[in-house]
C-alpha cells in the first residue's frame, strides 16, 4: 500500500470502531528513542523516518508533529503521503493533544496503542482531553491488522560483558538497587528501558540498530530478580552466569502475567516516562504504584573508574580512525568522486579497523553545504550530494566499541570559505570552549552549562534550536539520561563520573550548518571556602579545523585552550600513527 492507502485504511478502521482521532507515537513497549523494525510505526504509516514525532489522525486531517531538527526532512518525506507537517513550538511537547482538544466535540473518542505510549504521555493526553469531555482509549492497535509484512521481533544473539570491562558485577548492582528500593519503601520494581536492563545485568545485544541492547523487562523484588527475555539468545554459559547471580530467566511475553499476579501488599516502583501505558494497565488496582525515575538510570550515568579508563582508551581508537579518515578525505577530494553516502561508508571502514569496534553509535550525519543546516540529516539516494573542493562539510558520527561509546562532530573546510562562515564557525567554537573550560560549583544543573555555552552566540544575536549536550552511555545508548545540557529546568545535578556531550551549533537554512562536539567527563576540581568546584575533562581526541578560525573573535583563554587541546590530541594519538599520519596531524594541531 502507498502511504495514502494506509491512511485511508486506518481511517476505515477508525470509523468501524467509532474512533474520532488516532495517535501514533514514535516509540515501542520500552519507550526507546531508536526502535526495532517491528515498531517503526510512524515510518510505516507516513514515510517519516525521524526519531522524534507523533502522528495524529482524524477523518479530516492527518498531521505529523515534530521539532525544528526535522522540519526540512519531514516536509520532503511527507510529500504525497496525506500527512501535513505541524511544527512544534516546544520540543517534545504533546501539542497535538491541545489541538485535538480544540478540534473535537464533547463525547469524541481519541485512541492510541498503549504499547507505544509512556505512562507519562498517556496521563498528559488524558489530562488535556478529558476535561473537554473527550474519551481516551489506550488499548487500541489499528496498525497490526493492516501491516501485513510487519517485521517479527529481533532474534539476534545477546551476550554478557565481563566484570573486567564493566567494573561492577550484576550481584553488587542488584544490591545497590535493592538498597535504593528499601529507601523508597517499595518492594517491587519494574524496569522496561533497555539501557537500564543492559547496565543492570551487564548484558548487550543488537536488537536495536546502533544501540547494543536486547529486548527485555525486569521485575526486581527484595528476594528475586526476574529477567524477561528470549533466552534462546543467550549461550548456556551466560544463562548459567545470570542464574549464579540470582537472576531468574523467563519468557519475554510473560512479564504481563507476572504484573497481573502481583498481590495487593506490593508497592511497585515504575518510571512513568520509560514504562508503556499497557504495562501499567496490567498492574492490579490493589497494588500501590510509586512513580519515580529508575534508580539504575542515575547509577549508570556515573561511570566507575574501570569504565572511565576504558573510555579513555576507546577515545584513542576513535581518534586514530578519525585522523585517518580526515587525512584520506583531504587527499582524495577533487580527485575521486565522494558523496555523502560513500563518505559515511568510508568513515565506518576506518572505525571498523580499530580494536573492539562493534558498530556505529548512530547513523552518520554527513551534511555538505546546505545539508549541514539540517541537524539530524541522513543522506538518501535522492538527496545524496557529491562533494566538491568548495564550502563546508559537517560530519557528526560515533562508534560503539566493546570498551565505550563515542560521539563527535567536526566541520571542515573543503575550500573557498567566506568571511561569514569563518565568523559563525569561530563563535560556535568559542561557545564550545566556554562550556568545556568552565569551572562550576557542585550541584550545578545542565541548563546552567547550556546558558554558559550559548553566551558567545547570544552576544552576536545567534542561537541554535537543539540542546547543548546529552549524557552518553558506556558501550550503551549514545543518548542517555537523567542529565542533559539544555534550556529545560531539569533538576538533575552534574555529578563526577558523568560523560556528556558539549555541542553548540549554528544553522543557516539553505546555506550551511556548523556544530562542534566533544565528549567531556565531569570531575572534581577543587574544594574551597565557597564549596566544592567541578570541571570537565575533554575525552574526545580529534583535531578541530583551524583554517576556519577568525582569531580576532577569540580571547587569549580560548586560544590557549585550543592549543593545549591540540597538544593533547597529538600526544595521545601519535604513537598509533605512521610517520606520514603523524606529520599530517602535527600540521593540523599546530599552535595558532
TrEMBL record:
The keyword Nucleotidyltransferase appears for this protein: no
Keywords: Aminopeptidase, Hydrolase, Metal-binding, Protease
Domain Creatinase N-terminal, residue spans: 7-129
Any one cellular-component term (Gene Ontology): cytoplasm
InterPro entries linked to this entry: Creatin/AminoP/Spt16_N, Creatinase/aminopeptidase-like, Creatinase_N, Pept_M24, Pept_M24B, Peptidase_M24_C, X-Pro_aminopeptidase_P
Domain Peptidase M24 C-terminal residue range list: 533-590
Domain Peptidase M24, chain residue ranges per copy: 311-521
Family: Belongs to the peptidase M24B family.
Protein name as it appears in the record: Xaa-Pro aminopeptidase
Organism lineage: Bacteria, Pseudomonadati, Bacteroidota, Sphingobacteriia, Sphingobacteriales
